[in-house]
Each structure stands twice: as structure tokens, then as C-alpha cells.
Amino acid sequence: MIDSKTKIFLTPEDRVFVLTGAGISAESGLPTFRADDGLWAGFRVEDVCTPDAWRRDPAGVWAFYSARRESGQKAMPNPAHFALADLEKRLGERFFLCTQNVDDLHERAGSVRLLHMHGELAKSRCERECGRAPVEDHTVYQNLAEVGRCTCGGRLRPHIVFFGEVPLEMDRIQDEIAKATLMVVVGTSGSVYPAANFVHWARQNGARTVYIGPEQPLNALAFTNVVLGKAGEVLPGLFV
Ligand SMILES: NC(=O)c1ccc[n+]([C@@H]2O[C@H](COP(=O)([O-])OP(=O)(O)OC[C@H]3O[C@@H](n4cnc5c(N)ncnc54)[C@H](O)[C@@H]3O)[C@@H](O)[C@H]2O)c1
Ligand SMILES: [Zn+2]
């Protein structure tokens, strides 16, 4: 364990893979997922983010994600998002950012080499997986009748990976982890798979691994270093 004044020294050979979770957006005012009450923004996960919830109650699912869109649009990137965008500017293609977050605070801070493995709040897609690409959609729906349909007739659903669905672009993620010499994980409890396994994959390839957050994640033992602190306070100035 190292303290928040520690620096991480990068060499010209380093390739950095960053994984972020809900904790990096906490200082922007967005609630994390596993708060003490086990609810996410007052909802039970199984009621709002599973394929079964979508089949049973699409109106309820859209009410939840519409509210997430609304609060996501009001939130602003914090110093942690900006610090990662700044690191990308310095490292160029030796940097890759994978986020579990569905908010767009990383891109609004300037990150480009970025992948949303659990989908994006600001997009919708056909519920039938008919092959049409997700579309940009910032609408805060008031009721199900407002939700559009795909040309195939399927209803538009949030472009979100529900629990029980396969995360997006896993091949690309595995390629990027295989190339990394340093993995930095920020603000994720280590309880959602496969993301919680990324640190193990990185270590198998010999990479250094660093966790940043105010408490130990469940997979803390897999990290070379754990820096206990808030992302917005630790990340700026961490990389030298
Ligand atoms: N903003 C978002 O897009 C958002 C918000 C909530 C949940 N989710 C989804 O829910 C799932 C939850 O998994 P998860 O592991 O990301 O979240 P989680 O809620 O399980 O864990 C959040 C972690 O963040 C840490 N944390 C709290 N404040 C922090 C801070 N200021 N700086 C750094 N870390 C801090 C906590 O200690 C905790 O370990 C993800 O799949 C994600 O898609 C997304
Ligand atoms: Zn369709």
C-alpha cells in the first residue's frame, strides 16, 4: 500500500491500460453502484438492468435510464477525468482507457482512445439485435409511447450492457491488456466480471498493476500497489 503523495514513474517503453469504474464519477456527483444500501440511485439492479426487467417492464427500465441521462447531462468531468485525458495527450497510442461507466464524462474531459465496455447512456439501439448500429439518443423519455422503433419494428432500448449480457469489444480489450506494461484501475469495487479479472490478465503478462480509490477493492491482493484516496485528488500529478 502506498500513500497519495506517491508518484508513478513512466518510461518511454511503458504502455498504459486504464480501467475506470463508477468511483471516478463520484466526485462529479453521480452515485456509485454499490452504495451501502445496495441500491443504485434508489433502484434494485434486478428491477432495472437485466434482460428480464426489459422483457417484463420496458417502461420501468426506460424511466431509470432516462433519469440517469438527466443526471449525467448535468454532471461535469472532475480532475480525475481531466488527469487521464492529459495522460493520453502525453502518451498518445501508448495509452488506452476502458471504462465500465456509461456516462460520457471521459470524452467530455477530452479522452479519445476510450472504450465503453458496458455501453453508453447517450445511445439507444434495437432490442432485436437486428444488426443496425446504436444511434445517439439524449432523450429523457416521459413514457413508453415516446420511445421510437427500429425500421425492423423492434423497440429502442438503452445501449447498455445489462447484467447477464456480454460486455462490448472484449477482443479489443484483451489485445490492449496484452500490450500493457502498466495497468491502472480507478474507482471500481472489483465485484463485476469480467472487468474484475483484467488485473489478473495484466499480471499474467508481467505488467505492474495499481489501484486508486478510497477503499480496498475486493481483488486488492492482485495489485502491485493500492493507493488509497479519492480519484480527483490522487490522479492529478500522479504520473511522472
Ligand atoms: N457513472 C456511471 O456511468 C455508473 C454509475 C454507477 C454504476 N455504473 C455501472 O455499474 C457497475 C458498477 O461497478 P463499479 O465497480 O464501477 O462500481 P461500484 O459502485 O461497485 O464501486 C464503486 C467504487 O468506487 C469507489 N469510490 C467511491 N468514491 C470514489 C472516489 N472519489 N474516487 C475513486 N473511487 C471511489 C468505491 O470505493 C467503490 O470501490 C459498472 O458496470 C457500471 O457500468 C456506472
Ligand atoms: Zn431492428
Q: How large is the count of helical segments?
A: 8
Residue-averaged pLDDT: 94
Number of strands: 9
Percent helix, as a range, is: 25-40%
Can you list the ligands bound to this structure? Answer: nicotinamide-adenine-dinucleotide, zinc ion
Shape: globular
The gyration radius over C-alpha positions equals: 18 Å
Q: How are strands sequenced across the largest beta sheet?
A: 3-2-1-7-8-9
Provide the β-strand percentage band.
Answer: 15-25%
- Main beta-sheet strand count, sense and barrel state: 6 strands, parallel
SS class: alpha/beta
Q: Poorly predicted ranges (pLDDT <50, ≥5 residues)? A: none
The end-to-end span amounts to 19 Å
Give the SSE string.
Answer: EHHHHEHEEEEHEHEEH
Your description of this structure?
The chain has 240 residues and is an alpha/beta fold. It has a six-stranded parallel β-sheet with strand order 3-2-1-7-8-9, sandwiched between helices. Strands 5-4-6 form a three-stranded antiparallel β-sheet, with helices on one face. Strand 4 and strand 5 form a beta hairpin. The chain is globular, with a radius of gyration of 18 Å. Bound molecules: nicotinamide-adenine-dinucleotide and zinc ion. The site of nicotinamide-adenine-dinucleotide has 29 residues, from loops.
Secondary structure elements and their pairing?
Layout (H helix, E strand, L loop, with lengths): L15 E5 L24 H4 L2 H6 L1 H17 L4 H13 L3 E5 L5 H5 L4 E3 L2 E8 L8 E2 L19 E5 L9 H10 L2 E5 L11 H7 L3 E6 L11 E4 L2 H4 L6
Parallel strand pairs: 1-2, 1-7, 2-3, 7-8, 8-9
Antiparallel strand pairs: 4-5, 4-6
Bound molecules: nicotinamide-adenine-dinucleotide and zinc ion.
The site of nicotinamide-adenine-dinucleotide has 29 residues, from loops.
